[in-house]
Amino acid sequence: MRPYLLLTPGPLTTTDTVKQAMMSDWCTWDEEYNLDIVEVIRKKLVEIATSHPEEYTAVLMQGSGSFCVEATLGSVVGSTDNLLVVANGAYGKRMGVISEYYNINYHLMRFEETEPVNVSKIDTYLTKHPEVTHVSLVHCETTTGVLNPLEEVAAIVKRHGKVLIVDAMSSFGGIPIDMDKLSIDFMISSANKCIQGVPGFGFVIARRSLLEQCKGTARSLSLDLYDQWEAMEKGHGKWRFTSPTHVVRAFMQALSELNAEGGVEARYARYCENHRVLVEGMRALGYKTLLPDEQQSPVITSFYYPSSDFNFKEFYLKLKAKGFVIYPGKISQADTFRIGNIGDVHPIDFVKLTEAVKEIMAE
Ligand SMILES: *Cc1c(COP(=O)(O)O)cnc(C)c1O
Questions:
Q1: Which domain holds residue 63?
Q2: Residues 40 and 117 placed together within one structural domain of the fold
Q3: Is the CB–ligand 1 distance for residue 72 below 6 Å?
Q4: Per the count of CB atoms within 10 A, which of 16, 47, 120, 244 is most buried?
Q5: How far, in Å, is the centroid of ligand 1 from the Cα of 91?
């Protein structure tokens, strides 16, 4: 069922059992679907996200991860609110673009794509701008693989008493995060990242008391997070509009497999080992990472082109023929390519990958 491994930031390599879970059809109003699958998923997501599940709730939303980021900003940040968007990559900037579409009062605070965001600059900005009501941040910027200092940013945002919205798309389920401990109010991720499901929906884990205040704030019907949540709460897992039933079934299977692996801590350990094997192997072949090790997430790694005449397309096709699909770079300052460490991929796969790279270099 897999001609090659996807070493990409999502969709990523899934298990055969996750794919097999999609081989039957489900009726959206049947209790077997609503109560046994959707409600169980919502409960499980909250349990993964926080040590105080009673204070949080989960909403699932059709579409890709960006739909959920848009649904959150558009349903949580009201017309008289003020949003600080902290950005050091494409996904942070996208939150600025969304704010533009929604006419949200916002300030885009930009940092270099090759560095984590600067906590003291955020602190200074919030001191100077008491009108800010919400702050949004990307945890792992998949653009480069840089891991932002979520704990430190969260502490500052909390000290200033602002609502914190975190795009944890490529880290939730793969890197331990406790929303309660960090005082995160809204956290967004999607089915096809570290939970290792297939694409088709995203989800938002929200502080219940804050989400309850968002009735009527949304400027989009389909992306009204409050309305979607209310329908799910009252309907015990009912989606407002047609839900991606097969994808949801696959996600349920993926959650059981996360549990069987030993939960988020165990998955994090595997991703770290994947990353370590990858980087050691590539460095031994002369490749250099874009980021210093201490800023690097275990999710995805950017490598510089090994020479100025490096042909990425050719390299990509040769690796694909050997069973590995990698990702192009996404930044303008340097010529890079990216290799993902997440999904149903294991340290041995990265040993094989670096052997394949070595063979290609010897050709
Ligand atoms: C994948 C990802 C998204 C969502 O991207 P989609 O293409 O809409 O699924 C958002 N933020 C980050 C950090 C991501 O890695």
A1: 17-259
A2: yes
A3: no
A4: 244
A5: 7
